[in-house]
């Protein structure tokens, strides 16, 4: 009992009373943080923000599909989220004839709403502290043994709190690098339907050029709905299901915003690493980020070449391209900002203070020397890991071929015919899905180039034995990039994966020699087996050691300075968090000041007819030039406000999060961060960090004036 109380007290005290940094667990929102929220303008009680038994704002916030945030905005289960969160569903629901990405989609009644296959929404129902249970199970353990027992204990708790028959899902989250554990319990709804989306020229306006940039004029939103059975159960799609009756939904404000207004964001931030060490920062700057950016840049180039040429290919590759592009620019900017703001030196300074305190304390005094050795042992192989994950497996064909290892294992290990048949059936099902999104032209170029890059960039002592020599023997000089292009052509022409007749023959008579002789499988197998057999153990050893030392470091920091510890908060772990701040302009550099809003004037200034990133629908141009903005016009500016920025602390996973005013009304949707603060996962900048949001009035104008879906507007509770 004392352990549980200590854990709760720890979390309650690890708060701060200044700036806007921090992603706070609503369950453990202490008086210090709440009072700071009130000072910034909040008008709501703590119970209105979060209550487990009474309806509160937390009941309107959902996990959208396991990767984004959404919010309920009507008493009929209507969801607002980002366009890029709904992008895959919008694309998969489209065809060349009915291209919802290009033209947009608006259901004028519930019968027109499109089932979103595979999509789900999760509502948080319970949070419990399970630290004592976890700590008791791993007491006295370290290293691999601790990791194994810990994972088993977490799985056991997840199982205990879950109820598959009632779609109840539980997930334990590790906080403060393993010094605290909470279990989060969710109710999952799997009948989700697409209600509306603007044309992609609005939802992605600015494209990669404007991504992570301010000023921004992107209408990044889409609309969905949650359904339930007639007896209010979370069930799979059925035509007689009815819209969800939520515990709570957010009113929508038309009042507008001003510089300095209170702003609060609820959501599910994915991950941060604010307590990263100087070793980790150096690893990102020197190896991880540059390698990832280089590989993604190559993949995006070949995908975009094909997408520009054919609307059908754009539909086919659009979702994957958007996902790859988003973090290509992020990791490029992150490394640059880490260098620019001397984050490495800041970490070294903090660690120096820790080492001074740790002298004479056996538990902590050797921590950083051990950490240095762990990084030294892993660093020589770390580039290969990125080149495997982002390069070799960045080829969709090779990634699918790698999955056939399960089939190989079943055949070679002489499993039962039933085991082999099960593996074959699973592979065949996966192949069907793979072929839907496989673009041979771009993928063939990716494979040829990534093999060339791997050969030149990864230490040759780490190359798969014999692989490149065999290419040289059959296709030419390894100093010539064309050699690798020829090999890629050979792979695509001969693999059974892309040939129905060969595939069907293999499925009918599974043969290990045939599989191992397949060019695509042989390529995937060469790199994977080389990695798994020789280098994966180094990564596993490093991961276990890094986790152990990270947990010990946080424990030491708390002990070192209890007063400073009150200013700490847990890293993001895709669990519900609140961040609070203000609508705020900023100065990114000398003589430059950015306003806190963008308007339709800026949209028209950026418009380029026919441009891949800055084109616009003709109807939007017509309405905008006539200033036909209706009730959504901002009277202060005599224009339609499109976007705004706040000082809130968010990260990936917060996409689609509601931006809420002091009275609990929806004023916008968070969708991005700014380039000047892309080091935010590791180091928050209180002066430059901004969250980029689409103004809800622009969202409603697009739905109403542009889309003509007044039925959606009528569902909302508008605050004027």
Describe this structure in words.
With 720 residues, this protein is of the alpha+beta class. The chain has a domain at 278-549. The protein is 48% helix and 15% strand. The protein has 27 helices and 22 strands. Strands 1, 2, 3, 4, 5, 6, 7, 8, 9, 10 and 11 form an eleven-stranded antiparallel beta sheet that branches. Strand 1 (61-64) and strand 2 (68-72) form a beta hairpin. Helix 13 packs antiparallel against helix 22 (519-560), helix 14 (396-403) packs antiparallel against helix 16 (417-437) and helix 14 (396-403) packs across helix 22. The longest helix has 42 residues, at 519-560. It starts with a helix and ends with a strand. The model is unreliable at 1-19 (pLDDT under 50).
Reconstruct the topology from this structure:
Elements: H1 2-13, H2 31-40, H3 46-49, E1 61-64, E2 68-72, E3 78-81, H4 83-92, H5 100-103, E4 105-106, E5 114-115, E6 121-129, H6 131-138, H7 143-161, E7 168-175, E8 180-189, E9 192-197, H8 200-203, H9 207-210, E10 222-228, E11 242-243, E12 252-253, E13 262-267, H10 278-307, H11 311-340, H12 343-358, H13 367-391, H14 396-403, H15 405-412, H16 417-437, H17 440-457, H18 467-475, H19 481-494, H20 500-508, H21 512-517, H22 519-560, H23 562-565, E14 577-582, E15 586-589, E16 592-594, E17 597-599, H24 600-606, H25 618-625, E18 641-646, E19 658-660, E20 666-673, E21 691-695, H26 696-706, H27 710-715, E22 718-719
Parallel strand pairs: 12-22
Antiparallel strand pairs: 1-2, 1-6, 2-3, 3-10, 4-9, 5-9, 6-8, 7-8, 9-10, 10-11, 13-14, 13-19, 15-16, 17-18, 18-21, 19-20, 20-21
Helix pairs in contact: 4-11, 6-7, 10-11, 10-12, 10-13, 10-17, 13-22, 14-16, 14-22, 15-16, 17-19
């Amino acid at each position: 009992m004392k352990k549980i109380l200590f854990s709760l007290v720890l979390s309650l005290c690890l708060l701060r009373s200044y700036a806007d940094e921090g992603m706070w667990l609503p369950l453990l929102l202490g008086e210090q943080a709440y009072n700071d929220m009130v000072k910034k303008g909040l008008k709501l009680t703590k119970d209105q923000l979060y209550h487990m038994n009474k309806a509160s704002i937390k009941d309107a916030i959902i996990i959208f599909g396991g990767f984004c945030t959404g919010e309920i905005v009507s008493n009929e289960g209507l969801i607002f989220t980002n366009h890029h969160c709904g992008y895959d569903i919008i694309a998969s629901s489209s065809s060349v004839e009915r291209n919802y990405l290009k033209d947009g989609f608006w259901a004028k009644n519930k019968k027109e709403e499109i089932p979103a296959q595979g999509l789900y929404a999760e509502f948080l129902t319970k949070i419990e502290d399970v630290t004592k249970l976890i700590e008791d199970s791993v007491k006295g353990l370290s290293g691999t043994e601790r990791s194994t027992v810990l994972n088993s204990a977490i799985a056991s708790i997840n199982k205990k709190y879950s109820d598959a028959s009632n779609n109840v899902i539980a997930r334990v989250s590790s906080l403060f690098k393993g010094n605290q554990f909470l279990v989060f319990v969710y109710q999952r709804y799997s009948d989700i339907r697409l209600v509306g989306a603007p044309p992609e020229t609005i939802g992605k306006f600015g494209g990669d050029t404007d991504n992570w940039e301010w000023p921004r004029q992107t209408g990044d939103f889409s609309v969905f709905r949650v359904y339930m059975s007639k007896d209010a159960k979370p069930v799979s799609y059925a035509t007689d299901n009815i819209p969800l009756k939520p515990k709570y939904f957010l009113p929508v404000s038309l009042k507008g915003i001003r510089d300095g207004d209170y702003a609060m964001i609820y959501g599910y931030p994915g991950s941060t690493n604010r307590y990263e060490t100087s070793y980790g920062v150096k690893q990102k700057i020197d190896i991880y980020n540059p390698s990832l950016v280089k590989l993604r840049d190559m993949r995006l180039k070949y995908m975009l070449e094909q997408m520009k040429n054919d609307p059908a290919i754009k539909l086919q590759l659009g979702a994957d391209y958007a996902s790859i592009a988003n973090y290509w620019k992020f990791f490029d900017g992150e490394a640059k900002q880490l260098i620019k703001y001397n984050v490495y030196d800041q970490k070294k300074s903090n660690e120096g203070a820790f080492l001074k305190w740790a002298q004479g304390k056996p538990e902590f005094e050797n921590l950083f020397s051990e950490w240095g050795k762990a990084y030294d042992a892993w660093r020589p192989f770390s580039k290969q890991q990125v080149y495997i994950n982002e390069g070799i497996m960045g080829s969709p064909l090779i990634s699918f071929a790698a999955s056939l290892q399960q089939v190989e294992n079943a055949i070679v290990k002489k499993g039962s015919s039933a085991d082999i048949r099960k593996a074959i059936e699973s592979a065949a099902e996966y192949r069907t899905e793979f072929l839907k999104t496989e673009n041979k032209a771009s993928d063939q170029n990716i494979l040829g180039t990534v093999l060339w890059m791997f050969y030149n960039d990864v230490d040759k002592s780490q190359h798969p034995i014999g692989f490149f020599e065999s290419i040289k023997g059959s296709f030419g000089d390894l100093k010539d990039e064309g050699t690798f292009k020829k090999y890629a052509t050979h792979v695509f022409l001969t693999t059974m994966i892309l040939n129905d007749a060969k595939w069907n023959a293999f499925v009918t008579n599974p043969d290990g020699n045939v599989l191992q002789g397949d060019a695509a499988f042989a390529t995937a197998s060469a790199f994977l087996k080389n990695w798994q057999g020789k280098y994966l153990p180094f990564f596993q050893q490093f991961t276990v050691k890094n986790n152990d030392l990270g947990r010990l470091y946080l424990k030491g920091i708390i002990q070192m300075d209890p007063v400073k510890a009150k200013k700490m908060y847990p890293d993001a772990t895709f669990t519900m968090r609140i961040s609070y701040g203000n609508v705020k302009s900023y100065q990114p550099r000398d003589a430059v000041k950015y306003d806190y809003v963008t308007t339709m004037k800026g949209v028209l200034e950026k418009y380029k007819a026919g441009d891949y990133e800055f084109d616009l629908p003709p109807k939007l141009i017509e309405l905008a030039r006539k200033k036909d903005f209706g009730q959504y016009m901002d009277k202060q500016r005599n224009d339609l406000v499109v976007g705004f920025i706040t000082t809130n602390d968010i990260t990936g996973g917060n996409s689609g999060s509601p931006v809420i005013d002091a009275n609990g009304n929806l004023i916008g949707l968070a969708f991005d961060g700014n380039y000047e603060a892309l080091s935010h996962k590791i180091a928050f900048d209180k002066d430059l960090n901004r969250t980029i949001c689409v103004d809800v009035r622009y969202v409603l104008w697009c739905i109403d004036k542009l889309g003509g879906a007044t039925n959606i507007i009528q569902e909302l509770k508008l605050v004027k």
